[in-house]
Amino acid sequence: METKSINVFMVDDHAMILKSYADELKKFENHSGIYRFQIERAYSLLQAIDVLKFTFEKREMHLVLLDIGLPNCEVPGYKSGLELGIAIRENYPKTKIIVITSYNSYPLIQRLFDLIKPEGLLLKGELNPEGLRAAVQDVLEGVPHFTKTVRKFLTQAPVKPNILDHYDMLILYYLSEGVLTKDLVNHLPLSLRSIERRKNNLKDILKLDYKSSDVMLLNRAKEEGFL
Amino acid sequence: MPQVVNTVLKQIMKRIKFHNSLILREAFYNKEAFLNFVYPPNTLIMSTYYSTHGRAFGYALFLFLNLASLPLTAQRAPMDPDFEKHLNQALNDSLSLEVRKKHLTFYYNLVKEIQDDSLKYERISEIVEIASNLKDSVYFHNISNVGHKLALSINKPSFVGDSHWNYAAYYLNEKEYERSYDHYHHAYKLFIEANNDYYAGKMLYNMAYISSKTYDYTGAEILLFRSIKLFEQTGSTLQRYRSFNLLGTIADDMEEFEKGLSYYTTAANLIKELDKWEYNRLQNLNNLGVRLIKMKQFDEALSYFNEALSFPEILRSSPALLAKLLDNRAYCLISLGKHENVVSSMLKAIAIRDSIDDTSGRVISRLRFANYYGKIGDSAQAIVYAKHARELASENNLKRDVLHSLEFLAVYDRKNAVSYLERHIALNKKINAEDRNLRNKFTAIQYETETYIRKNERLLKQKLQLLLISLVSIAILLLIYLNTRQRAKNKQLLLERQEQQYNEDMYLMALAQKSNLEKGRAEERKRISQELHDGIISRLFALRFKWQTIKLSGEAIMLEQHRHFLNLLEELETDIRNLSHEFRNMLYMEDKNFLNGIKTLIKEKSEIGNFTFRFDYEQAEDWENIPFITKINVQRFFEEVLQNVIKHAQATEVTVSIYRDMKVLIFKITDNGKGFSQSQLKKGIGIKNLENRSSKLKGNLEVQSTLNVGTVICLCIPINN
Predict the structure, then answer these.
(1) Where are the bilayer-spanning segments (chain A) (predicted)?
(2) Which of A65, B41, B208, B474 is 20 to 30 A from B362 in CA distance terms?
(3) Contacts of residue A180 in chain B, CB cutoff 8 Å?
């Protein structure tokens, strides 16, 4: 049986996690006998950007295992793994991306699908070695692979966005992140007035009095599954 | 003959050698008088002063008193005809003394009924003045005593002074110089006290007159200069004229003839300013003549007397002066050796003097006759006249004249010359002793007066100083008081402002502290959440993941258990993740809203003030975004207004609305209370505070109030960005 050489690029700020991924891939390699994995690792966003800039050109990466929650670095335009994923997707469309993250909020999942369109999306909380192996196998075979919560989101998703647009979702998301209304202008390309208007609109949709507080708004949004 | 006189005199001089120089000088004057035998100028003054002016003077005094001390009675109350009748009768010279006394008693009894003390005193003074001429000392003393007591009870210095004056005039008439001088001196003090310089000057003049009578020329001069000073101040020319006249005679007596001439010239100049100058002019001429007689320039003296006698019209009304002039002219002629035609003049003079009862004049006329007969060598006639003169003089207590007559007798009555001389010496000694005694007393009184005046001046000065000092101190105290009060006020205001500022700062600090705390708390939460999420969960995940890759062999139950534990680990991971998320969400739980603060405030106040409220605000507005200082001031603004609503308005409904109009934030409170008027608005300190607050925010305060309808207070603050 002919073996297939696969270049894998793994990004996570925890060395132990990367070690586990690598061990599991090795095991998968031995087990299936089809794939031979050449593994490139990055332990920080800065390192990952370096790899993207220099290694990707020399050696085509077939698969990227990408963590989102990475410690911030001082490189402009890169705040988290999200921007890195976008850059890879834009520059190397053939590269398959599996996002492995511990963030499990709907808006983030929404954003990931909107901006990166990953072939695989795995939530760490639901991930085990078998899951990882299955995901890698599926993705390498051209089948998208998502963990349970993501699948649930995907089935619900078509209903909600009709009512709430992308920005509404982001407003809710940032508010839940503890961002103040007045600081939302730093995160969104919207004016304060229009943000206020959207908030009132959200309260309307969620059947809330327009004098209700942000806490009430967020609670209702959670109840309705917008968060 | 003069040689004899001179030897006699030398003898006298020897015997009185031990006397002091003053007495020697007087003896010298006596010699002058003895040799020249002129009409004594002092007596001249005396007679003009008292016989021709005495009463008129008294009336003048009375009227002046009216004017000076009692302006209210200046217009005399209409007199009862009875009063008038009795008074006129009492004044009538042609009636006998007894009849006049009777009328005066009648008048006195009527006067006693007068209620007004001042008026009563004036009348009594008038009566005393008349009584002093009635030659009844008991009667005079009775009435003057009543007058004096009344004056003392009224306790007005001018009245008491007047009473003393009456006494003094009486005693002067009685030739009791010491008493008279004492009374004048009292009167002088009192008039000075009453600020009546004119009368005070008169008193000084009279004292000077008495001094000159007792040969205290220096004392008299001093007194006269003082009186002239006073008269200059009051502008009374007549009195100045009299003073200079007396000064002139005194200077003549002291043989300082040049000085005397200058005084008489001054007096003559003053005459021109007088209304009735003729009489005084003639008197002045007489005095100048007498002066020349003393200087033994009989020719020139004669021309003065002749000039004076060329005004018979004027002299007709003053016989005493006429007699003097005639007598003096005769004396001049005799002295020049012209004995013809002098007897008729002398007889005329003696007749006039006898008819007007001019006692001293009568004595002098007789001495002149003695002199005349002595000059023409008729010793017998001379002795007769001299004896007659001596009798008259001793009858009337004219001691100097007694001396003169004794000198004549010693010269012409050779047989008894020694006894006459001895008597002369004894009398002279007695007179000198008496005069010295009197002078000492006058000096004592004078000294007393001067000390009194000095004391008065000192007291006045002290009073003035005290007044000045107290005024200045009062002014200073007042200034200090005002300054202190102003400062205290300012301090209080400053303190109040500082307190307010302090409160606000405290509030700001507390809020900033709170916000800092919250910020720190939020950051800490965020950090913990991040730590949980990125650190612990990740490691937990890595651990679990790794563990799951480990192939285990063993009993089925044990393997099952192993998987179960791994699942538990996975659940734990999820729990921590959720916890981390909740940490973040909790940041929102904090209720630190500006609007909520205001809402809470209104709610609290509505409970106190017992009113319902509505709170309108524009949700869209980002109220949290307005500057912190504005927030605080707005909060305070609402607090103050609501406090006033509770205190004064008695409102049942209050509406608070806040909104934005373009670039202006508007905070409005409307109540349905009783409202207030515009004037009340101006007084209110509450409104001022609001205005201060508004101006601090560069805002604008609008207050509209309608009585019994309500009040709208609106604070508009422009947004600056």
Answers:
(1) none
(2) B208
(3) 624
Q: Is the pLDDT of residue B601 over 50?
A: yes
Domain that holds residue B689: 594-718
Residues in chain A: 227
For A4-156, CATH number? Answer: 3.40.50.2300
- What is the architecture, at CATH level 2, of domain A160-223? Orthogonal Bundle (1.10)
Inform me whether the pLDDT recorded for B46 exceeds 50: no
| Chain A interface disruption, residue of B515, B585, B623, most A CBs within 10 A | B585
- A32 Cβ under 8 Å from any chain B Cβ: no
Structure tokens at A16: 């132990």
Distance from CA of A34 to the nearest CA of B (A): 20
Helix (DSSP H) and strand (DSSP E) numbers for chain B:
29, 5
Domain count, chain B: 2
Check if the beta carbon of residue B682 is closer than 8 Å to that of residue B688.
no
Q: Using an 8 Å CB-CB cutoff, list chain A residues near B545.
A: 17, 20, 24, 127-129, 132
Report the gap between the CA of A95 and the closest CA in chain B (Å).
25
Q: Does A127 touch chain B (CB under 8 A)?
A: yes
Q: How far is CA B395 from CA B363, B398, B404, B424, B432, in A?
A: 10, 8, 15, 17, 20
pLDDT in tens, A205-227: 888 877 777 888 888 887 776 76
- The DSSP bridge pattern shows strands B653-661 and B612-617 to be parallel
> Taking CB atoms and an 8 Å cutoff, what residues of chain B touch A19?
542, 546
* DSSP label of B79: P
The model's pLDDT over A136-184, given as tens digits with 9 standing for 90+, comes to 999 999 999 999 888 888 887 554 555 677 788 788 888 877 788 888 8
B576/B629 same-domain check: no
Domain boundaries, chain A: 4-156, 160-223
Q: What is the pTM assigned to this prediction?
A: 0.43
Residue showing tokens 């196998």: A137
Burial of B486 (0-12, 13-18, 19+ CB in 10 A): exposed
Residues B584 and B463 in one domain: yes
State how far residue B598 is from chain A, nearest Cα, in angstroms: 14
User: Are A16 and B574 inside 8 Å of each other by CB?
Assistant: no
Confidence band, pLDDT 50/70/90 cuts, at residue B23: very low
